[in-house]
Design brief:
With 222 residues, the protein is α/β, with parallel strands linked by helices. The protein has a single domain, classed as Rossmann fold, CATH 3.40.50.300. Helices cover 35% and strands 28% of the residues. A hairpin with a 2-residue loop joins β4 and β5. The chain is globular, with a radius of gyration of 17 Å. The chain starts with a strand and ends with a strand.
Length: 222
């Protein structure tokens, strides 16, 4: 059974009485251990698709199934619990709390998850693999962009989610830091079996994935 299934999903946003179709009959499946990239121009629907998969927005129609559970069949509380337990998010903007150091930004995710939090041994392993141990007591303003994104990745993975959703994770980085972060994601996939679904507009970034899906006008076209 795929970890993620999207079945004929449509998403329409309304501005007044005018509907704008962001997703038009999208279907896809992601297997355990895959690293999948979704590429497309701005406005192609790729970020909307990621948000629907992550439960951050509801589809207008269609189904999203995570680990065999369909979002639409769950209560709000059950959907939130599923999202906390099964999904990690990494965004273009690092979204680190500026008043907390790197360690506390990571630990905050464990506190929010409560009983669903991943074990401390897993946290330590992720921190070591990302190479941010020496920077844990630094606040975001004291870290480079690449270091901030590594902290954001650690925060996303600390609860050992089933799937990592990365939305333009290198969009705010220079080419050197972009390559370093992408190499980290590839290695996490290869060495730890982390399933990753990454949105990007950059074909060079997509080349780090196992396979690439191309979106245009709210559809997967290739």
């Amino acid at each position: 059974m795929p970890i993620v299934e999207v079945r004929d999903v449509n998403k329409v946003f309304y501005v007044g009485k005018t509907g704008v179709r962001a997703l038009a009959g999208v279907s896809l499946a992601v297997e355990a251990g895959e690293f999948v990239a979704i590429v497309g121009a701005s406005g192609s629907g790729k970020s909307t698709l990621l948000h629907v998969i992550g439960g951050l927005t509801h589809p207008t129609s269609g189904e999203v199934v995570i680990e065999g559970r369909e979002y639409g069949a769950l209560s709000d509380a059950a959907r939130t619990a599923l999202r906390k337990r099964e999904i990690g998010f990494v965004f273009q903007r690092f979204n680190l709390l500026p008043t907390l150091d790197a360690a506390d930004n990571i630990e905050l995710a464990r506190d929010i998850a409560g009983r669903a939090a991943g074990p401390a041994e897993w946290r330590d392993k992720i921190i070591e693999r990302l190479g941010i141990g020496p920077r844990l007591r630094h606040r975001p303003a004291e870290l480079s962009g690449g270091e901030q994104q590594r902290v954001a990745i650690a925060r996303a993975l600390v609860n050992r989610p089933t799937i990592l959703l990365a939305d333009e994770p290198t969009g705010n980085l220079d080419s050197q830091n972009s390559d370093a972060v992408l190499a980290v994601l590839r290695d996490l996939n290869r060495e730890l079996g982390q399933t990753i679904l990454m949105i990007t507009h950059n074909p060079e970034a997509a080349a780090f994935a196992h396979r690439t899906l191309h979106m245009k006008d709210g559809r997967i076209v290739a």
